[in-house]
Amino acid sequence: GQVHDERPPARARDTAGERRHRGGFEADLPRELGKARGFPLEDGSGRLGALFGAVALGAQPVRLERRLYAVRLETQALLEEYFHSVLPAGFLARRLLSSQTFQALAAAAPGVSEFLFLQKLLQWAQPSGWAKRERFDLVLVDGPATGHALKVLGSARSIASLVPGGPIGSTARRALALLCDRQATRVVVVTLPEELAVAEAMEAYDALANDLALGVARPVLNRVYPRRFTRRELLALEADSATRDPLVAAARFQYLRRRDNERYLARLRRRLGVSPVLLPMIFAERVSLADVISWGPSLQGLLQ
Prior knowledge:
Blueprint lengths: L20 E8 L9 E5 L4 H5 L10 E4 L2 E5 L2 H12 L3 H8 L2 H9 L3 H14 L12 E8 H17 L3 H15 L4 E7 L3 H17 L8 E5 L6 H9 L6 H27 L4 E4 L8 H6 L1 H5 L4
Parallel strand pairs: 2-4, 2-5, 6-7, 7-8
Antiparallel strand pairs: 1-5, 1-6, 3-4
C-alpha cells in the first residue's frame, strides 16, 4: 500500500517546510498529587485527536484514554490566559487584549510565544495554589522544527538573565530550573535516515547537550526499513540485477533502502556515542493506534 508519513504524537511530525528534523521533550514528574495523569501536548496538526477518535483539540485538555489527555496550544489563547491571570481586574485584561497596538507589539516582540509556552508548561508540571489540580505526572511536548525548538528551550535562560525580577523573571527562572534538571526533563531528538536530516540531528544533539546543557535522551531514528532478506537472498538479488521483474525490482529497492538506513544508523552511533532507538516504516494508508502501541517497548527506555 501507499506509505503514509503520519507519526505518533510523542515523536516529531514532518511537514513540507519542516521535513528534515524535529524534536520533543518531556518533564517527568512524581505521582504525589491525586490521580496521576499523562499529558501529551499536540502541535496543532489534529492527527493525535483523530488517532484516538477524539474531536478536534483545543486549549483545554481532552481526554483520549484513561490517564491520557491532549491539548492544542496557540499563542493567542496563551496570551489571553496569561494576562487574565496577572492583571487584578478582568476588564483591564480585556481592554489590553482588545488593543490592536498591543496585539501588534506582542506579535513582534521576540520571545513572547516561547515565554507563554514555558509558563503553560510550568502550570502543568509545577502548579501552585488552586492550579495544583492541573498537575500531571508526565508531560510530553511535540516539539517544533529544529531552529524553533532550540529557541524555545534556550528562551528561559535568556529571559531569566534579562528580567531579574517580577512575575516574568520568576517564571523564567522556574522554567530554567525545570529544563536543566536532568532527572525531570529530557529532550528527544527525532530524525529520518536521510543525509540532511541526520546531519541536522547531530548538530541539534550537540547544541542541546553542550550549548544549552540539557539532558538529552537517545535519539530516535524514524521510518527505518525492515531487514527482510538473508545473505544468500541478497546475493541472488545482486546476481539477478538485469531482470525487469517488478517483484525483484521492489525487493532490490527495499534492500537498498535498508542498506542506506544502516549507514545513517552507524553514522549516528559513531558521532553521538549512543545507539538510536529505531522505529519502523509503516507500509499502510494510515498509522493506527495499534501501531503506536507496538512502539511502546522501544520508546519506554527514553523515559527511564
